Amino acid sequence: MEYWATSHDRVLAQRHAEGWMFLIEAARDLRTTGAVAPSSTALARLLTNPVDETDSGPLNVLEVGAGTGSVTRTLIPRLTRGSRLDIVEANPRFAARLRHLVGTHPQLAGASERTRVHHALVEELDTDHRYDVIVSGLPFTNFTPAQAEKIMARYMDLLEPGGTLTYFAYRGTRHARALTATREEARRHRAVEDVLDTYQRRYATGCWTVWANLPPARVWQLRRPAPQAAAANTLTSLTGAAR
Q1: Per-residue model confidence (pLDDT) at position 112
Q2: Which of 44, 109, 133, 170 is the most exposed place for a label (fewest CB within 10 A)?
Q3: Which residue range forms the structural domain that includes residue 70?
Q4: pLDDT band, very low/low/confident/very high, at 11 (cuts 50, 70, 90)
């Protein structure tokens, strides 16, 4: 009981520290931080579910916009033996915290060459790897439509055929912005949603709401078609056109 209480208190202290760090970074730049609180456990589990749903062999996994690591800590124990994990974070203070997390996590001992933290934008990530799973924590509605398009195109390019992307958006942001934003900001927000809608219509395989998060969030799951599925779709389109 004493060990449990100590561990429980340690977790609570960690979450409290992360909460303060998010508030500080949001005050510095809410556009790139995108949130005022770390992702909840429920949201982190849903975002990382595709790792369990993929074949049990080693995986290449990419997490983008990892923040203080609330999703990363849920992701690491779900990785199969021999998997590679790349973590991309543009905020230098968050990146430093993530490097500490990776360097001290007991389940990553002896696997440092397969786990890397990149202080970079995902659009500028220098890699020749393709990924089975991409988990995104980026605040899309804080970007311009051109930035959102560039990031989504980069994600689909980095995915293996048949690979899965998960990302989330906070519920109610359109209504909140309608009340507080300028007309220009509201138009930008709608244009970003149009970009995301295009990818959702083409690639989405699931969508869920996580109410146990601050604020509640909607999680989207997209999949890059496998070659045989893409070929089948092309054949169907050509057959339909011939008719």
Answers
A1: 73
A2: 109
A3: 40-237
A4: very low
Number of domains in the chain: 1
Assigned domain for 145 exists: yes
The DSSP line for the chain is -HHHHHHHHHHHHHHHHHHHHHHHHHHH-HHHH--SSPPPHHHHHHHHHHHHHS-SS--EEEEES-TTSHHHHHHGGGSPTT-EEEEE-S-HHHHHHHHHHHHH-GGGTT-GGGEEEE-S-GGG------EEEEEE---GGGS-HHHHHHHHHHHHHHEEEEEEEEEEEETTHHHHHHHHS-HHHHHHHHHHHHHHHHHHHHHEEEEEEE-SSSS-EEEEEEEPPPHHHHHHHHHHHHHHHH-
Q: What is the CATH number of the domain that holds 108?
A: 3.40.50.150
pLDDT mean over 92-117: 89
Rounded distance between C-alpha atoms, residue 150 and residue 96, angstroms: 26
> Is 242 contained in some domain?
no
∠ Cα 122 154 218 (to 5°): 85
Task: Please give the pLDDT value at position 54.
Answer: 79
Q: What percentage of residues in the chain have a pLDDT greater than 70? A: 74
Decide if 20 is inside a domain. no
Crossing angle, helix 183-203 and helix 145-158, to 10 degrees?
20
CA-to-CA separations, 210 to 85, 103, 170, 217, in angstroms, rounded: 25, 30, 9, 5
Least confident of 32-41, 64-73, 95-104: 32-41
